[in-house]
Penicillin acylase family protein
Amino acid sequence: MSGRYRDGYGIPHLRAADHEALAFAQGQVTARDRAWQIEVERHRSQGSSAAFLGLEALAWDSFARRVRLDDTARRCHAALDPATAAWVGRYVDGVNAGLAAGAARAPEFAATGLSPGRWEPWTPLAIWLGHHVLFAGFPGKLWREHVIRRLGPGAARLFAVDGHVTSGSNGWLLAGERTDTGAALIAGDPHRFIEAPGIYQQIQLACPEYDVLGFAVPGVPGIAHFGHAGTVAWAITNASADYQDVYAERLRRDGDGVEAYGPQGWQPVHRHVETIEVAGGDPVEVEVIETERGPVISGGPEEQPEVTVSLRYPPRVTGDLGFAVLPALLRARTVGDLDAALDGWVEPVNVVLAADTGGGLLHRVAGRVPRRHADNGLRVVPAWEPAYAWQGWQPMPKRPVDQVAVMANERSISAGLGVEYAPPYRADRIRELLGERTDWRAEQMASVHTDTYLAAAGPLLELLADVDGLSAPAQALRDRLLRWDRRMAADSLDAARFADLRAAVVHALATHPALAELTAPPAHPEVFTPWLTLVPRIGYALPSLLRADLPGLDPAELVRAAAEQVATADDTRRWGERHRLAPWRALPDPAAPPGPELAGDHDCVLATSSIPGVTDLCGRGPAARYVWDLGRRENSRWVVPLGATGAGPHHDDQLPLWVRGELIEVTDDWHRLTEEHDD
């Protein structure tokens, strides 16, 4: 029996007669529930969002045009096998069938004057690219190039924390020996920008071939990252792999054309001009140039190679985005099926944990990482040197699971594939917590999700402990922080004072002569600014910078001065009063009240990230939480920060649960669901 059903939180549960009909139903319900969201993403993927969002969207649109997102999606779609192309096409048909009804429910369309458009067969691929083209953090190479040019080659890794990455997640797998039921549990939470509505869509997809529930990406068919198919379940984190390169390009004009200097000398390259419409402003022309390395994303023929760089990334090179993996995941019944399917995965490069009801366990990396010179991973490399060309692909590592496996973006299973990884604090803390018992149940996993212990506070507090010559108020502050339990609890005054001390040290470092050369960012496009601004880079790398050998830098003196500064401040707010949720909205509401108070911080397991030295607000954090129970799927749990839909009563009804760390029991019994009919 086919139909569209909902649970009490408005989460869609879909049944259809066959695989393609189910894809249509998924596209249609997504358009009805998330019309504004997916239309924004469609426009962002083709670089046309400034036409209704205005000047603030221009930087992204310019990047999307220059990096050729839409063209890459067309190229990858053209290479799909017929069955996958037909499946994606039916999803697109469903979106087009549901957009008008969805737009009528979303007030943002009227507010911006936007009319719902028509999706092309390749639009889901373009949306996937748009979400992940910056996921590997290639702008970090632009930053390291800036550091090397200003401070010398020895400073290349100065801002590593074991390297802080901008996208991460937690995930863990407990084999049956460590659970109360004797069946495996998989749990975790992907850390991404918190968006309204969210990047992950809770959904159940059922047809005679399969019955899978999990998190879909709105605008993309299937369930890619986190799913439970009854007999097998899977989850991912970012592998922190390095699979995108930036090349310094020498360009020159040749009449109406452009030439680039490569290993074979000067050669003509692709060049055309596109126009971006801007709401409330004049149209802007963008010159699109592509060399043999890839699209030019910064600079141009009139600028120096220092700022003129091209991007080389696997889907653009191969014309393959790995979309054939998505239907294969839905059909998987065992970890062997998943493992075989994931051999075709491309981007982003992920660490995968999976388990099945037969006792099978899987811990592997999936994706495509090129072989090339070590410097490619570190910095911008010269396009004209043949030594920096790609030389095939790296093998993807696998590792046996000994009862427990943890993935938290640290330097672990994917260590040979990247340059910068997340510090080990989250991974070590999760392992410590999981080691406390051997009878875990699904409902107990929230205690791990919500742990607020901040091990990353250690280096700063150790320095503070050794500082002498403090005034009486600063001495009292030191004593207080050394007694602090290092938990970033929302109701903690001590956590707030630690954040004050940390911010003061960050600002002191940012104005120190040793780093003065880095104050002015390199002249790259605005879209890369988050990676190229000194204060955030210091904030994330603070533990390693406090140990760095920099000329004239006395870390103890910096900490002493910061303690004196904080000790005389009169801010008495608790951590949660300052650490509030600030989700990204394509159309911000200036009248919106402050977000809810949050516990946690960026290096806690509860990774509600702030930017030390910039803001205590949280824009990045657990974009979903899940527990997959392989014993009984109905014991599984999930939650998202806001809700199942972009408008209506379910747009934020999960938020209070998410803030408290609670999880919703999964409903996969169709008799407990309510059938929904078209309006």
